[in-house]
């Protein structure tokens, strides 16, 4: 599995033979490859006018391109703001709650991300195919898909150390701009241009899988909540900056302590261990059916405990998603 930004084909359909040669070199004998573009075909075509674009079938004959649309950061931020507003609604009116929850589209985004990740995992596990995942810059939805696909396929990514390595490799070293995406919270009155809950959505997807496979993960829900908190506000330097270059220039390794050093101390590690954990070497396939996806109460209702109608409201919400 590979990840990248979009190819710069532009309106003239420019080629990069080195790219073609490199990507084709990953194909196994007799196997084909899949390119999973996390943009819609329309968005990808619009990107060509700005110098971007997508791979042309004529130049990648052994590869099949599939578009699995995952919304971009500005839409995701609006979704988070609407979700937080719904969770803070004190009217105790179920219809109002359902309307706001549906309008946020948060669970829809989770379904889209998990669906794309399952597709990538299926191509690798069931066909032995090579997979290339990319969006526009390759630092947002691309990382969500590749990270979740590895959790589905690789048991080591479901351990505490393995998951920490996954976050370092797929998010920190790959250049997810934490400084821009997590600059403020959904409670802020001002809206930052590059703000987006991309990492939070990834953690929410992991929680959904953890809830469906409670014995297959070495870490618990609190571990995921802890990572969410430190991505937005932390006394450690792990999530500061937008990329490795910025962190190096800021000399964060010399000036700050690593979050992982703190987490992996025995007195802290015990808080994040799952007592139900049993090592599972199998691939796990999460369900994306409406009844399988739930609102992450540990994050979004942590200070507002669910009212009596919440369970009934979630059932109604499942029906809304199912029949629409």
Number of self-contained structural domains: 1
Give the radius of gyration.
20 Å
Low-confidence stretches: none
Widest beta sheet: strand line-up: 1-4-2-3
Return the average pLDDT rounded to an integer.
Answer: 91
Tell me the overall shape: globular
Number of helices: 16
Helix-and-strand structural type: mainly alpha
Percent of residues in β-strands: 5-15%
Order of helix and strand elements from N to C terminus: EHEHEHHHEHHHHHHHHHHH
| Intertermini distance | 34 Å
Task: Report on this structure.
The model has no long low-confidence stretch (mean pLDDT 91). This protein has helices at 17-24, 41-48, 73-87, 94-104, 106-127, 141-153, 160-172, 178-181, 198-212, 221-232, 244-249, 252-255, 259-263, 266-269, 297-300, 310-323, and strands at residues 2-4, 33-37, 63-67, 130-134. It has one domain. The chain is mainly alpha-helical and 324 residues long. Helix 5 (106-127) crosses helix 6 (141-153) and helix 6 (141-153) runs parallel beside helix 9 (198-212). It starts with a strand and ends with a helix. Helix 2 links the parallel strand 2 and strand 3 (63-67). The relative contact order is 0.13. Helix content is 49%, strand content 6%.
């Amino acid at each position: 599995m590979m990840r990248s930004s979009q190819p710069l084909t532009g309106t003239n359909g420019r080629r990069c033979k080195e790219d073609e040669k490199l990507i084709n070199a990953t194909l196994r004998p007799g196997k084909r490859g899949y390119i999973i573009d996390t943009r819609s075909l329309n968005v990808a075509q619009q990107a060509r006018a700005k110098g971007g674009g997508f791979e042309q079938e004529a130049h990648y004959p052994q590869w099949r391109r599939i578009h699995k649309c995952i919304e971009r950061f500005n839409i995701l931020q609006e979704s988070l703001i609407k979700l937080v507003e719904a969770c803070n609604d004190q009217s105790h009116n179920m219809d109002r709650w359902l309307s706001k929850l549906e309008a946020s589209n948060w669970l829809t985004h989770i379904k889209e991300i998990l669906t794309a990740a399952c597709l990538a995992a299926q191509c690798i596990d069931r066909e032995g195919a090579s997979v290339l995942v990319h969006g526009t810059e390759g630092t947002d939805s691309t990382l969500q898909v590749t990270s979740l696909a590895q959790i589905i396929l690789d048991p080591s990514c479901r351990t505490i150390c393995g998951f920490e390595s996954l976050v370092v490799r797929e998010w920190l070293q790959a250049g997810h701009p934490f400084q821009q995406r997590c600059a403020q919270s959904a409670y802020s009155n001002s809206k930052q241009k590059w703000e987006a809950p991309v990492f939070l959505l990834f953690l929410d997807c992991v929680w959904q899988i953890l809830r469906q496979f409670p014995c297959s993960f070495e870490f618990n829900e609190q571990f995921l909540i802890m990572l969410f908190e430190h991505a937005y506000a932390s006394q450690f330097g792990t999530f500061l900056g937008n990329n490795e270059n910025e962190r190096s220039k800021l000399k964060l390794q010399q000036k700050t302590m690593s979050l992982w050093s703190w987490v992996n101390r025995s007195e802290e590690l015990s808080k994040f261990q799952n007592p139900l954990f049993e090592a599972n070497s199998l691939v796990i396939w999460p369900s994306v059916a409406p009844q399988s996806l739930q609102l992450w109460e540990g994050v979004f209702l942590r200070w507002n405990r669910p009212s009596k109608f919440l369970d009934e409201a979630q059932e109604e919400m499942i029906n809304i998603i199912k029949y629409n």
